[in-house]
Amino acid sequence: MILTKTGEDLHLLKIAFREFYFNQGNMVEEPSKIQNREFGLMGFDGVMKRHLAFSSLGGLIASLIFETPSDVFASNAQYDFPTLPISEKGWRGAELIFDIDLKDLDMKCIRSHSYARCLSCSSSYVSGSQESCPKCGSNNIAESMLPCDRCVSGLKNEVLKLHKFLTSDLGISPEMIGTYFSGNNGFHVHVQDESFNDLDSRARADLAAYILGVGILADAIGVTKDIRNDFRIRFPIGGLDHGWRKRISDRLGISVSSQKRLSKLIKDLGGLEQFRRRIAEITRDMGVRIDSQVTTDVHRVFRLPGTLNGKSGLTKILCTDLNSFDPFDESCQLSNREVTVRITIPKLKLRLKGERFNLNEEFVRVPMFLGVYLISKGLAHAVRLDPGTGRFIVPASTP
Amino acid sequence: MNIRLGNADLARYPFLNEAAEYMSQTYFNLDDLNLPELQHIVERASNRIRNEIIHGKPDNALERHEVEILTFLVGILIIKAINSDNLTKKHCLCEALRAEKFLVHDLKAQGELANKKLLIFKVFKELLKMDVLPSLKYQLMFEVKVTDYLKRSHLFHEQEWKLINRLVHDGRVFLDPDETVRLIRSELANLLFERIRQMNPSHIPTTIREKANILKSILPVAPRRLDDAPSAYPPCINHALDQMAAGENLPHSARVMLATYMLAIGKNIEEIVSLFENAPDYNERISRYQVEHLAGERGSHVRYLVPSCAKLRNDGLCFATSQCEGLINPVQFGRAVKSYSKKASVG
Questions:
Q1: Which of A242, A313, A363, B52 is the most buried (most CB within 10 A)?
Q2: pTM value?
Q3: Which ipTM value was assigned to this complex?
């Protein structure tokens, strides 16, 4: 994110966020056993206050209106004493959560809608393949990205893959899976099946590796090392009907009755070592690009559903129907009231809250939701009219 | 479930609640152990523990249930009288290994499914609060809930235990009898340890105390450590040494780390083998073979290197401190400490 907010930017963001929590506080989702959760509130100054606790949703919303944080987080863990330091909190289990973020998807389109701002000369431009400022050559660059429909589609595909792992492999009922748009560049998948809550970090790391497709052995599908013949095939007792065994065998086009075919395939690849590499590639390709650190951390705080994301001004929101879900529409909850902004990127095109915007002018009147989105992304600054001269007051940026 | 196990089952699994119920029904009194007709039981339990101290191996002989249940009980009393945490851990591991052998046999047996289910219920569900079911789809396979599996499998560092290398479907992991039982080995040993720790017999009969005193005299005097000051070792090695000293059952990967590290810093085979004397499953012959193998004196004649810090972190064996900063292998630690001390002592 481009970190150059002016005082005017912060003023506008705070007004918009306060208005949201005042008028739409009912969107904030109450976590179960709220009194046992640790909360974290991030200020617009970037300072995070952690180890907070609230005994009721009303108390939390009042605090959000009063303090107006840029981001609101709650622990997935439940604690006996949520306000004490980590070692004294008394951990009582944590929900299993997965994070799928655009940065992990290697989408080819990203560079075409990523924007850079030179922190030395303040010029802005489409990132492209340039690593330094085309104007002054500085490497002191801040980047921002506006996800496109293709990015959202890529994210949704990963979420659907994850759903398949969770339901088919791990036996989690679909009703126990909550899928949320994070409000910026990703999705959070919350598992509400409590039997997973008491898994520790190491167990979660193993689960994350399973979903990522990391650590497969050829032995898992019955191919083992043989001193005389390089390899030996003896299909496992459970066959190749389920889980990773099925995924790999389907991709390779083999079954338990095609031992000769598999043997030929291994030889064609060049032997056991090459075959091992091949199935590792397959599992990495078919695995879900989750952020394993997020899943493994049992003391983390997560963005609270129904709150605003300070990186975009969009809301973290539950997707009831992932296929039809449009993050640029449904998560855009700020008001339509008009504000004036100065756009720092020329010829910006985007779609938000069901409207298409072609921003060609430097100074434009836009709805609050768009103004906040652009300012949060570092692509615009808030401006106001001087009542005396009737001209725009352009505040200096504060790097 | 109100169905009861047969006496033969109680002989193999004397730690089950039903075995304790059986004892209470016989009106057995602790002082009965001083009676001459029960001396063969006291002798049997004492020999079992002696064997565990000397060879680190469980006794796999199986007698009728009255003898087995009493031997188990007397064994615990002797252990209580000796009052050594290290020996208690060793004894519990041996009892767990013994039960493991019978359990694998019983799960593999082609008997009635109902009997197998009952045994599984008594051992896994009642004792360890774990759901295990004989698979209806795959003969001789068992289904374990994926959460139950994950809670236990991370104790194993071998890649084959990683979930991705298992048959997983619909929230269940499919395991063969050996794997099913292996999954609970350390848990069973810990459960027995806790039970013994919490047990408070009203008194220890004289015959038991006498046997305990004899066995106490053959216990290793003190955990062996090498001569160097502990601060010369990296924290991962110190942690492993401390665990070994406390009689903990170190995982294979930790033992490999310890042995390869000691070899790398120039310790001889004798010294390294003696380090493992305190392990609950210590067997001098096996330990020597393994250390010699790591030293490249046996098998493929390849000398094994000390695992890297990254590998140790992955295996949960790293206990890094600020002194470990920048190291990629534990062997560098000694050098860093030495050069630091040299520097510190100059001027």
A1: A313
A2: 0.79
A3: 0.89
